[in-house]
């Protein structure tokens, strides 16, 4: 039998952290995605420009560079700014917060495109009907446009989630004790790098498999009112 | 912003960018060669071809590239004796070799999946037309199915190439000095944190847009028969 030398629990704790970071990042990604989609549809030139820049720049730069830029760059920038005013300040970001914010920001750009497509596919008549029966713009958005768009967006958001959860492995490089970094600790301590990295990869596969099942159910649920 | 330092570090960063381009091209070329037979094996009715390739594709698409890199570079150390006996240890000890190997397997898995979809999407009529001309087997595949599948796959493959270019940044985690690695190295010596990463980001953006533009041209050329004036 496989001897994990007592490091099995460390992997499971890492798994827990990975899923937690993933969920927080996905939540941020959907928020950024909604914001981005709003920017693309907005009549304001500035909002269009900001949303376009967001999606093109974020998708053109590696995640790792953005992560390092946020984790190391932002505190340094603030420190330099404060130093210019004649004060001294030592600032460190929490890797958990920096990690899920950055990953959420990056995948928000992908969510923007998914949500943009989804909102485009909601028939105009739906919104007009909602307005005609007296719903305010906000209420019609919340009760009609958003639910219909989310149904369309679900497969696309599922894809984003699958890529996002794998991207969380990068946060191990800024010292967050998630699955990948705990696997590294165990690998170093036991001199069995292959065993532990392979186990970690299988746990990632398990997340992917469970996600596929959940998504399939969610899609069936979302389509419950649709006749084919 | 320390512009002077950025200017001074530019040669080193560009050298790193050279490594990035090299890694991308190497892995793309070998990955592409592997992807076509993999896609065919995945479509085959022979269970001995079908299931192992399906497993390979599932594994490499379902796990993070960083884990794959560590598995091959650090993980191979666990089998040092066996690899030494086979005369392979000199390769696995080399981070650059491990980087290309991992990136190649990774992109081969994704590309195989793109090609599988594309081969399935080749219109039946075109294959039947080829058959009517008396082509069959390998000739039919080489002259009709593959060129058409390649055209269908082109937009998705363009995305995969961009993803691979960005994914190469992870090799800095296994000590390869690519663009990210070079930026990291200078950062640790000079504490010019945002200057280095921002410059690297701009260089990655430039490389990405060159690629996107090249694929747009290629698509225009290969799929010219589809383009209609709006």
From TrEMBL, chain A:
PANTHER family: CATIONIC AMINO ACID TRANSPORTER, MEMBRANE COMPONENT. Keywords: Amino-acid transport, Cell inner membrane, Cell membrane, Membrane, Transmembrane, Transmembrane helix, Transport. The keyword Cell membrane applies. InterPro entries: AA_ABC_transptr_permease_3TM (IPR010065), ABC_transp_permease_HisMQ (IPR051613), MetI-like (IPR000515), MetI-like_sf (IPR035906). This is ABC transporter permease. It is a multi-pass membrane protein. It is found in: Cell inner membrane; Cell membrane. The chain crosses the membrane at residues 20-41, 53-73, 93-115, 152-174, 194-215. GO terms for cellular component: ATP-binding cassette (ABC) transporter complex. Its main location: membrane. Residues 15-215 form the ABC transmembrane type-1 domain. It comes from the Bacteria. One of its GO terms (biological process) is amino acid transport. GO terms for molecular function: transmembrane transporter activity. Belongs to the binding-protein-dependent transport system permease family. HisMQ subfamily.
TrEMBL record, chain B:
It comes from the Bacteria. GO terms for cellular component: ATP-binding cassette (ABC) transporter complex. Gene3D superfamilies: MetI-like. CDD domains: TM_PBP2. Residues 17-215 form the ABC transmembrane type-1 domain. The keyword Iron-sulfur does not apply. GO terms for molecular function: transmembrane transporter activity. The chain crosses the membrane at residues 20-41, 53-74, 94-115, 152-177, 197-218. PANTHER family: ARGININE ABC TRANSPORTER PERMEASE PROTEIN ARTM, MEMBRANE COMPONENT OF AMINO ACID ABC TRANSPORTER. Belongs to the binding-protein-dependent transport system permease family. HisMQ subfamily. This is Arginine ABC transporter permease protein ArtM. It comes from Thiothrix subterranea. The lineage of its organism: Bacteria, Pseudomonadati, Pseudomonadota, Gammaproteobacteria, Thiotrichales.
């Amino acid at each position: 039998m496989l001897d994990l030398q007592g490091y099995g629990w460390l992997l499971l704790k890492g798994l827990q952290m990975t899923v937690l970071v993933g969920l927080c990042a996905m939540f941020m990604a959907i928020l950024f995605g909604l914001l981005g989609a709003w920017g693309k549809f907005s009549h304001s030139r500035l909002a269009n420009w900001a949303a376009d820049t967001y999606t093109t720049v974020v998708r053109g730069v590696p995640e790792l560079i953005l992560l390092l830029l946020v984790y190391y760059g932002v505190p340094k920038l603030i420190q330099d700014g404060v130093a210019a005013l004649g004060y001294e300040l030592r600032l460190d970001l929490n890797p958990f917060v920096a990690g899920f914010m950055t990953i959420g920001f990056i995948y928000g750009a992908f969510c923007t495109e998914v949500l943009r497509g989804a909102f485009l596919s909601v028939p105009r008549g739906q919104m007009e009907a909602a307005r005609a029966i007296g719903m305010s713009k906000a209420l019609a958005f919340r009760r009609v446009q958003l639910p219909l768009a989310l149904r369309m967006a679900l497969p696309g958001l599922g894809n984003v989630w699958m890529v996002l959860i794998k991207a969380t492995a990068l946060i191990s490089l800024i010292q967050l004790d998630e699955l990948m970094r705990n696997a590294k600790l165990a690998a170093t301590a036991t001199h069995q790098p292959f065993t532990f990295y392979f186990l970690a990869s299988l746990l990632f596969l398990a997340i992917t498999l469970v996600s596929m099942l959940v998504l399939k159910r969610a899609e069936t649920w979302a389509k419950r009112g649709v006749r084919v | 912003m320390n512009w002077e330092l950025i200017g001074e570090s530019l040669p080193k960063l560009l050298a790193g960018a050279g490594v990035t381009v090299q890694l991308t091209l190497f892995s793309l070329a070998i990955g592409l060669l592997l992807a076509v037979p993999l896609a065919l094996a995945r479509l085959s009715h022979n269970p001995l071809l079908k299931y192992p390739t399906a497993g390979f594709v599932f594994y490499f698409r379902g796990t993070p590239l960083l884990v794959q890199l560590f598995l091959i570079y650090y993980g191979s150390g666990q089998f040092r004796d066996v690899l030494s006996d086979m005369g392979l240890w000199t390769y696995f000890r080399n981070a650059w070799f491990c980087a290309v190997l991992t990136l190649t397997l990774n992109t081969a898995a994704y590309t195989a999946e793109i090609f599988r979809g594309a081969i399935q999407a080749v219109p039946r009529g075109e294959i039947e037309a080829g058959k009517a001309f008396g082509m069959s087997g390998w000739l039919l595949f080489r002259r009709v199915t593959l060129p058409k599948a390649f055209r269908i796959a082109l937009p998705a493959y363009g995305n995969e190439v961009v993803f691979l270019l960005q994914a190469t940044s992870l090799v800095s985690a296994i000590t390869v000095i690519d663009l990210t690695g070079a930026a990291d190295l200078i950062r640790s010596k000079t504490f010019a944190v945002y200057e280095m990463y921002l410059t690297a980001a701009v260089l990655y953006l430039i490389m990405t847009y060159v690629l996107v533009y090249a694929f747009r041209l290629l698509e225009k050329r290969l799929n010219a028969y589809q383009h209609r004036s709006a």
